Amino acid sequence: MSVSPQLIWTSFSTIFRREVRRFMRIWPQTLVPPVITMSLYFVIFGSLIGSRIGEMGGYSYMEFVVPGLIMMAVITNSYSNVVSSFYSAKFQRSVEELLVSPTPNWVVMSGYVLGGVARGLIVGFIVTVIALIFTSLTIQHIGLTILIVFMTSVLFALAGFINAIFANSFDDISIIPTFVLTPLTYLGGVFYSIELLSPFWQALSKLNPVLYMVNAFRYGVLGVSDINVAWAFAGVLLFIALLSGWALHLMRHGKRLRH
Amino acid sequence: MTAALSIRNLQKTYDNGFQALKGISFEVQPGDFFALLGPNGAGKSTTIGILCSLVRKTGGSVSIFGIDIDRDFPGAKQQLGVVPQEFNFSQFEKVFDIVCTQGGFYGMPRKLAEERTEKYLRKLGLWDKRATQARMLSGGMKRRLMIARALIHEPKLLILDEPTAGVDIELRRSMWEFLQEINAQGTTIILTTHYLEEAESLCRNIAIIDKGEIIENTSIKSLIKTLSKEVFILDCLEKLSEAPDFGSFDGRLLDEHSLEVTVEKGQSLSELFAHLSAQNVSVTSMRNRANRLEELFVSLLAENKKQEAEMGE
User: Chain A residues with CB inside 8 Å of B93's CB?
Assistant: First the structure.
């Protein structure tokens, strides 16, 4: 018997609904903190310091920084939702509920990843609404904007899923966000255009994948970018394919899930 | 008839080289109430882990109602419900959600999952706790919650890994009744337990596993028949100052109101009572010194250990 489409859909929607229920239940931990942090960024960098910086990339500093900050919120929340939820399920052994069921591995992965995407997009939406208090946003390419934010969210949710598979302790789920994700995001052109950097640092910055996502999103909103947007989409797609394959490989071989 | 569970030459060697299963084989027939017994570390939980895919076998084959897990594990899993030894649900989720969500993992439409959740929570006395977070439940309630969760897709084969560990006597007996009820309705049950009295009163067939090998696989009745002797404690009406004459029986005075008598296979209890009665010793009650299955279990393990020692020499 192969797994029926009905089982796949029911199982996927059950995992997804449970993930959404989880982060909505603990909204003071999941939805409020990023909103407060981003509001402070808008006030301090956009409004107070930004007014003294002047234009960047042909836009006011506030207009320039808003897309990057929205993307930063989406990235960190998509990642942290999946890594904490899936690791908690491993820690409490409730992941066994899924592993003993006929649900295929790819459905488990998709359910968790889309749960992370849901949180990332909800936080991104709230941050966007707050940004509108500080500046007016006219989105230049709505389709591209939605697509890149969705794809970026999927990519980082997948990365969180893999982190959770490898993690053996709660320390392990904070190492990557602290030592990898945060530096990449801060150095990924959220707060500045890489045109301000010397050629060496510009070249080095172009090795940072977050730069491409932030710039693709900024292109969608403002119509300007430091990099070729087509490369950004191709890169994100490639990484989604690679991380999906890796995550499924780990699940198939039971890495830290089965004995 | 297709076996509910067929295990052939099942092997498991962990990454650290430990050989947990050395090629075990046994079958469980549909409708059976089967006991899988063994000391700690014998391989029971490894076997169950393989059946539900939490442990990967390194050799052999397993079929559940004729479905080979190597060919169609999802299909085999649909036939199987497992109640593990350790609590393995989210402590922060509500009781209803835990059970209902499990139905979703088996492809059950939401409405049906909700109906079944209500059915099994009511049967297991947890309906009043449906909106309670799992962490607030007592140990016994958590065990019943895991049984309700395992039954949500109404499996044909239910495996319970020490379901009554740490459960008080009243609750244990109500769980026994519930398990007997679903077994009578056709669900095949495999039980692992350290309470041999539980296995003797519930199960019809048995496999005993020790150090990764099956050392006995028979019916409980046949196994009990192999007992060469039984030791009874007799409670006496009158105060006894010294041991009476036991005739051909081996016995001793335990205290002033009780006697311990060993009855060999072939000896008659009527003969013992007649002998005691002739000496004006009135017996008011009697019981086995230890559970009969327990005595057999201990002797089988000791025999296995002795054989291994001899082979080692």
Answer: 94
In a domain, A259, yes or no: no
**Yes or no, beta carbons of B109 and A1 under 8 Å apart:** no
What is residue A25's three-state secondary structure? helix
Mutation site for B-interface testing, chosen from A16, A90, A92 by largest number of B Cβ within 10 Å: A92
- Helices A61-91 and A5-25 cross at an angle (nearest 10°) of 110
Has residue A258 been placed in a domain?
Answer: no
Query: Cα dist. A193→A190, A215, A220, A224, B95 in Å?
Result: 8, 9, 16, 10, 52
Tell me the residue range of the domain where A224 lies: 5-253
CB contact (8 A) between residue B106 and residue A100:
no
Q: Is the dihedral of CA B157, B161, B162, B167 positive or negative?
A: negative
Q: What ipTM does this complex have?
A: 0.84
Judging contacts by C-beta atoms under 8 Å, the chain A residues touching residue B108 are 10
Q: Quick check: is A16 in a domain?
A: yes
Residues of chain B contacting residue A102, judged by C-beta atoms under 8 Å apart? 73-75, 77-78, 105-107
CB contact under 8 A, B108 and A10: yes
Q: What is the pLDDT along chain A (259 residues), one digit of tens a residue?
A: 568 889 999 999 999 999 999 999 999 999 999 889 888 888 887 778 877 877 777 778 888 888 888 988 999 999 999 999 999 999 989 999 999 999 999 999 999 999 999 999 999 999 999 888 888 878 888 899 999 999 999 999 999 999 999 998 888 888 888 888 888 888 887 888 888 888 888 888 888 888 888 888 888 888 877 778 888 889 899 999 999 999 999 998 877 777 7
A114 in a structural domain: yes
Answer whether A133's CB lies under 8 Å from A96's CB: no
Read off the pTM. Answer: 0.83
Amino acid making up residue A78: S
Cα gap B5→B274, rounded to integer Å? 49
The count of domains in chain A is 1
